[in-house]
Design brief:
Neuraminidase, signal, five-stranded mixed β-sheet, Phytase-like_dom, mainly beta, about 5% helix, about 725 residues, Alkaline phosphatase
Length: about 725
């Protein structure tokens, strides 16, 4: 298997063993992912959505503590072995916990008690983490938004987004006596009393001398309060002119737009050192490093948006709403290197910067985070980083919320596995839904985007000799000189004449027909073939997925059973492109808790190979595999006739490959290609970063390394 694991020696296509050169400095790689629903108590409703909003660590760095505002609990995760995190219990809280911090063995939790049409209300709990009980509580008389602890452990501060019958905000400071809350010593700093322009605080962060930095996102402002509660300084976060960004939600990533005078709208805030602050700017799609006096030391401009596009994480359907939307910032020192971590809530990624020079931070790498990363925790003494994501797709049958763990180690980054970095102009991409090799160069592959980017259906050229693989070209599929409409491309194969055969999956309810297309090398459609009525009249939503050319005939995969198929049998369709005659066989699919279908086809040494998968992810996934189809002695039948059933041999289980990335097992393994030497390439479809993690895994194995097993029809 050719996963780009750190320090791994990989077998190249020309069969020479070449160890990838390690990066000069250590890198972060994901070790493990922990689904928070595994932390629920007995009898809990596992189908209830979760929303982890914040996370902290214990002093020994062996336990993570997160707040879940939708389940009204604080969860604990044992990370003594960070590669195998374990559930460590949960603590029910009064109110919806929105923020948590830990000092010693005690957790402190700010919980929202606000009810509809009633004054804002909240409470601060102290929690015995070992005994998993609430110790005591302080009434906040307001709605908490964030929580911070002073470096010496003697004081907590809570940002209140509203209180009483007012919509104004405040900062509340609560002293600690040992680990006990001193509710009687609570002091309230009314922001509007300090300055009439001060409004609702979003996030707060203690500085090295006990001062507090406060972000006011709605007011586009930053305030620094001295340790005595007085205003030390305050300043507008100002605006940014952006170029090279996508600003229209039109089913195509077009990074050529521009926006003028975009308010930064600082959300999360952190101290880099005694002289510098960092804000994650949800409004202007980037982050800013500030001098303590409000001077702009550095602004990232469009950098984060461009990086998301390079790795396929750009959320096109958020183009009119702040794009990747960075909303979380963490600063920490790893081996003496001041490091900034920025999480893009809608781009599902964490950016890692070396901030040794605050005026020119260096982007080191971009990490996958799961859906909607909400909080980050650093454990430098163990070389660990943790993220928690708040996007729970349980109601749509998708991924749950996860805590992800990353280790700083020698070697090379595992992620991304494929990128368009280095292309000029920058190539946007996503939803890679098929693969095929170049007939003349085994290091070159081609892929297509599916219907998610329907305004610009595309063919991508991939240089698989590089690590990560590089997308080097994009050709829009055109009809009469314009981007072809009503296409959902799900398969590609060379036509042997410098162009390609493509398949487009139809959708009866959307009046989009199934189609077999021949295009030239630039993507222009030169021929279109429709399915015969004997096939199309029985179609369902899940149609053409994969196309191959074998002995002069095209083979097409139908993803799932259609109306005329027995349960457990799907069609492989043969098309003679010269005569447009059709023949069909049945392929036996596996059983699973979800549905099982076909995603792509490949040909090697005269045999047909099939990519077969279920629609499940995480630990629920059971079927992700490559099979070889036995066509010997099988005579395909005419559509509508009784169909022969082919045999199959399972040649590779892909679940271990998918698990090796350290994340949860992705559902959509969509692309399969086999080059003449027997190297097998696979790719996952990232669903356009729409209710999905946005991750694309591109990897390879070799047929010679796989031990086949036969699956009976």
């Amino acid at each position: 298997m050719r996963l780009p694991l750190p320090s791994a020696c990989t077998l190249s296509i020309v069969a020479s063993c070449v160890c990838a050169q390690a990066w000069a400095d250590p890198v972060f790689n994901r070790l493990a992912s922990f689904p928070t629903d595994q932390n629920l108590g007995e009898g809990a409703d596992g189908d209830q959505p979760a929303s982890p909003d914040s996370m902290a660590r214990t002093d020994d760095g062996a336990t993570l503590v997160y707040s879940d505002s939708r389940r009204d609990l604080v969860g604990l995760i044992d990370i003594a072995n960070p590669a195998a995190p374990r559930p460590a219990g949960q603590i029910a809280t009064e109110g919806a916990p929105v923020a948590v911090t830990v000092i010693g063995s005690t957790g402190y939790v700010a919980a929202d008690l606000t009810q509809d049409d009633e004054p804002a209300a909240g409470v601060l709990h102290s929690v015995d983490l070992a005994g998993q009980t609430v110790i005591d509580s302080c009434d906040l008389a307001g709605q908490p938004a964030s929580l911070a602890s002073r470096a010496d452990g003697g004081q907590l501060a809570v940002a209140l987004a509203g209180y009483g019958g007012d919509t104004g905000g405040a900062v509340v400071a609560i002293p600690l006596t040992g680990d006990r809350l001193d509710c009687g010593g609570l002091t309230r700093i009314e922001l509007a009393d300090l300055n009439a322009d001060f409004g609702v605080p979003s996030h707060i962060a203690y500085g090295p001398e006990g001062e507090l930095a406060v972000s006011l996102q709605a007011e586009n402002h930053v305030v620094i309060l001295g340790a005595d509660g007085a205003v030390e300084t305050h300043f507008s976060a100002g605006t940014v002119d952006l170029a090279g960004v996508d600003i229209v939600e039109d089913d195509v990533i077009d990074p050529t737009g521009s926006l003028d005078a975009v308010q930064r709208e600082p959300d999360a805030i952190a101290w880099l050192d005694a002289s510098h602050l960092v804000t994650a700017n949800g409004g202007s799609r980037g982050f800013t490093i500030w001098g303590r006096d409000g001077r702009i030391v550095y602004d990232s401009g469009n950098l984060l948006e461009q990086e998301l596009i390079k790795i396929g994480h750009y959320p096109e359907r958020r183009s009119e709403n702040s794009g990747g939307q960075p909303e979380t910032v963490l600063t920490a020192s790893f081996d003496g290197v001041p490091t900034i971590f920025i999480a893009a809530e809608r781009g599902n990624a964490v950016f890692v910067f070396d901030a040794s020079d605050p005026s020119a931070p260096k982007l080191l790498q971009t990490l996958p985070s799961g859906i909607e990363p909400e909080a980050l925790v650093a454990i430098p003494e163990r070389g660990l980083l943790a993220s928690v994501n708040s996007g729970d797709m349980v109601e749509d049958g998708g991924a749950r919320t996860h805590v992800m763990l990353y280790a700083r180690q020698e070697g090379t980054p595992i992620y991304p596995t494929i990128t368009s970095a280095g292309s000029d102009p920058l190539i946007p991409w996503g939803t890679l839904s098929a693969l095929t090799p170049d007939p003349a160069d085994p290091t070159v592959l081609y892929s297509v985007s599916d219907g998610f980017y329907g305004a610009a259906p595309a063919i991508f050229t991939i240089d698989a000799a590089q690590s990560p693989a590089r997308i080097t070209a994009r050709h829009i599929v055109t009809r009469d000189g314009k981007a072809a409409e009503m296409l959902d491309l799900e398969g590609i194969v060379s036509d042997g004449q410098g162009g390609f055969w493509l398949v487009s999956e139809g959708a009866r309810g959307d009046d989009m027909p199934h189609a077999i297309l021949q295009v030239d090398g630039d993507g222009a459609i030169i021929r279109e073939i429709s399915l015969p009525a004997e096939l199309e009249d029985n179609d369902k939503r899940f149609g053409l997925e994969g196309i191959e050319l074998l002995d002069g005939r095209l083979w097409l995969a139908i993803q799932r059973e259609w109306d005329d198929d027995p349960d457990g049998l799907v069609k492989l369709v043969q098309l003679d492109p010269e005569t447009e005659s059709w023949a069909v066989v049945h392929y036996p699919i596996e059983a699973s808790e979800g549905w099982v279908g076909l995603s792509d086809l490949a040909v090697h040494d005269g045999a047909l190979y099939v990519l077969e998968r279920d629609n499940l992810l995480g630990d629920a996934a059971t079927v992700k595999q490559i099979t070889r189809v036995d066509l010997e002695g099988v005579e395909p039948a005419a559509p509508g006739a009784e169909l022969p059933v082919v045999g199959k041999t399972v040649v590779r289980d892909l679940i271990p490959d998918l698990r090796a990335q350290g994340g949860y097992i992705l559902d959509k393994v969509e692309g399969l290609a086999i080059v003449p030497e027997g190297q097998v390439w696979m790719v996952t479809d990232n669903d356009g970063v729409n209710n999905s993690s946005g991750e694309t895994i591109f990897w390879s194995s070799n047929l010679a390394d796989d031990a086949p097993r036969t699956a009976a029809p």
